[in-house]
Each structure stands twice: as structure tokens, then as C-alpha cells.
Design goal:
The protein has about 200 residues and is an all-alpha fold. It contains 10 helices and no strands. It is globular, with a radius of gyration of 18 Å.
Length: about 200
């Protein structure tokens, strides 16, 4: 079990920071990245994510030096969280294709316009993708049970909250009162049990 926990920690350490920082770079500087263009923007960001992942992998031993051991209760909490995150991912994938997941509608709205998503799980929660990411990171952190994984999760929640605010600002600029009305009906991160029209 220690090997599984360790590799879960390495996985989270390598990929979670880059995934969050990708969007933390895109949203605040969206006007700049639109001038740069989507291809070069994606090349820069994907390269940066890979360099960051490699650097974190190289420093994994000191970064993962504090671990708390295997705890069955934490594993018992992590498994259903991962299951819920997987179900969310499947639901979300019905609406989010690769083009949307990479941010092309933000980077080139004139060439990759998309309608406001308000159906399916988006009728229950405005940001199911970020909810799914938070649940996944929490599950991996609990499973791994390393100090670094908890710190990554905590930092991710803070950064994702800022990203959500920035994304909502963009959506409000793009969709106007339609988005405002959607916000009054649908909660940001805690899903409604039933969808409202």
C-alpha cells in the first residue's frame, strides 16, 4: 500500500500544479494571450506544464519527505470521492470537448464560439469541471496522505476559486444578462439535487 500511496503523491505533485497554473495564467491575461494566438499560447503553456512536472518529479524526494502512513479511514473516504469525480467527469465530457477543455473558446472566441452551457449537469452547478478537479485532488491527497498533497489540494482550492471568479467575469462579458440570470438559478460549486428551468 505504501507504493500506491507514494505513486499517488508523485502523480498529484507532478500534474496538479501545472493543471491549475495553466488556467491561472490564461484567465487573468486573456487579452494578452488572444494577441499571441491560440497555437503559440498552447505551445507555451503545454511546454511550461511539462517543464514544471519534470522539475517537481526531480525534487519529489524532499517535497514528499513528510508522510503520515496508511490510514484505512482515509482510503475509505478517498475511494467514493474518486468514484463521484469519475461520474462527474463522464457527465461533463458530454458537454466539454477537447477544444473547450484546452480553452480555445477563451483564446479565440471569434473562431471557436460556444453557447452558454446550461443543460445536463450545468443545470445543477455552474462549474462542474472545477468541482470535479477539487474532488479528484482531495481524493488523491487523502489516498496518498503526504503533507505535500494536502498543501497542493489547499493551494488548488484557493487558486481555483480565483480562476472561477475570473472565468465568471469573462462569461458575464460574453453572455451579459443571460449569464446573470443563469447565476441566479444555478449555484457555483455545490450542486442542486434537481435541475431548475
Amino acid at each position: 500500500m505504501d507504493y500506491i500511496r507514494y505513486y499517488a503523491a508523485v502523480y498529484l505533485l507532478m500534474f496538479a500544479p501545472g493543471a491549475v497554473l495553466y488556467w491561472f495564467s490564461i484567465h487573468p491575461f486573456i487579452r494578452f494571450w488572444r494577441r499571441v494566438g491560440p497555437r503559440l499560447t498552447l505551445l507555451i503553456h503545454y511546454s511550461g506544464v511539462m517543464v514544471l512536472a519534470f522539475g517537481l518529479f526531480l525534487f519529489r524526494k524532499p517535497l514528499l519527505s513528510v508522510e503520515f502512513g496508511t490510514h484505512p479511514l482515509l482510503i475509505a473516504l478517498a475511494v467514493p470521492l474518486l468514484a463521484v469525480a469519475l461520474v462527474l467527469r463522464v457527465q461533463i465530457s458530454r458537454h466539454l470537448n477537447k477544444r473547450i477543455l484546452t480553452g480555445l473558446p477563451e483564446l479565440a472566441p471569434d473562431r471557436h464560439s460556444t453557447p452558454l452551457l446550461t443543460e445536463g449537469f450545468y443545470a445543477r452547478v455552474r462549474h462542474p469541471r472545477y468541482l470535479q478537479v477539487m474532488l479528484t485532488f482531495l481524493a488523491w491527497a487523502l489516498l496518498a496522505n503526504y503533507l505535500a498533497t494536502y498543501l497542493i489540494f489547499a493551494a488548488s482550492v484557493v487558486l481555483l476559486r480565483i480562476i472561477i471568479w475570473l472565468e465568471e467575469r469573462e462569461l458575464r462579458a460574453r453572455f451579459g444578462s443571460v449569464y446573470d440570470e443563469y447565476c441566479t438559478r444555478v449555484p457555483r460549486l455545490i450542486p442542486r439535487l434537481s435541475a431548475r428551468n
